[in-house]
Amino acid sequence: MVHESSARRRLSQNSYPEDIGRTVETSLESWPAVLAPRLAYFAGVARTEHVTRAAQEMQVPQSTLSRALVRLEQDLGVDLFARHGRTLSLTPAGRTFLASVERALGEVERAAEAVRADADPEAGKVAFGFLHTMGSETVPALIREFRVHHPRVRFSLVQNYGEWMLERMRAGELDLCLTSPVPDAPDLVARRLDEQRLRLVVPEDHRLASRKRVRLVEAAEEAFVTLEPPFGLRRITDDLCAQAGFRPRVAFEGEEAETLRGLVAAGLGVALLPPPPFARPGVVELTVTAPRAVREIGVAWLADRPVPPPVAAFRGFLLGRRGRLLP
Which helix (H) or strand (E) holds 78? Predict the structure, then answer.
């Protein structure tokens, strides 16, 4: 047979599992679609070097297998087999092609096993995103409790701010995310799970440090250290200050709550933050009496995406923790 070198050629159109003699003109970008259904047939015959035995092993009609091999050779423009009566042997081109085919089929098999394993209700995987402030106590405690009844379920954990996680979820990289504020978007389903009180964090030598409670307006003249604008807690801080009648004077912006506590301890400002996992020296945390300083925590997922069993199980577990999410 002779190689064709043109960018376009006429390839026999496969109707898997039965090959049809009809041909269509197609570009070389279509090679995977045209060749893929025939690769397992080719590998099976190459392994046995006998069409009849290969057809029996693969449980397909011998005529189907023979036609598939003929079409494959026609499309490639090379002989893959030398025929000797009922037996066949690979040509040099066939041996070259077989090495790549076996690698490709191996990758497909591994991919199939991986996605099946991820969907296993007892041993699958959940891609779960959550806020940085949920990472030290809340999420570890939730996963520990969930795994009491689902000990083989695996987790891929991602920490970031809410909007970033929602975009990763839309891109198919996350199954669920624990976020704040609770999102409201037509492509999402979101459920409120709990609320968390925010405290005004001040340096230990601050004029308000001797107090237990404070109205937020009493900090109107203070410099604030806050998370950056994309973070949900930054929007909540701005909204609470607006409710108190002032706009916060932002001195420093960061990406992590404990870094902000460090800046407060250094006397560089005050901050509205959720409670820390452990008491931080150098700061005092005050209850805000007005306005009501809380943030809602919710779980979100895509509205139109199929939910694998392990994800459904963990989602159900989270929904069952409504009002009891936080330590």
Answer: none
Q: How many angstroms separate the Cα of 170 from the Cα of each of 33, 160, 189, 192, 296?
A: 27, 15, 12, 20, 22
Residue recorded with tokens 């909007």: 163
Q: Is the pLDDT of residue 3 over 50?
A: no
| Cβ(317)–Cβ(203) below 8 Å | no
Which residue, among 116, 127, 175, has the nearest Cα to 155 in the 3D structure? 127
- Predicted model pTM: 0.68
Q: What angle do CA 313, 316, 317 make, to 5 degrees?
A: 85
Q: What letter would DSSP give residue 50? A: B
- The DSSP line for 198-210 is -EEEEETTSTTTT
How does 300-326 read in b/e, with b if 16+ C-beta sit within 10 Å? bbbeeeeebebbbbbbebbeebeeebb
Share of the chain above pLDDT 90, in %: 61
Residues β-bridged to residue 272: 200
Please list, in sequence order, all residues whose beta carbon lies within 8 angstroms of the beta carbon of residue 292, skipping any fewer than 6 positions away. Answer: none
Q: What is the pLDDT of residues 147-186, one digit of tens each?
A: 999 999 999 999 999 999 999 999 999 999 999 999 999 9
- Rounded to whole angstroms, the Cα distance separating 40 from 112 reads 15
> Burial code of 253-262, b = ≥16 C-beta within 10 A, e = fewer?
ebeebeebbb
Token representation of residue 254: 């960061």
What number of other Cβ atoms are within 10 A of residue 118's Cβ?
19
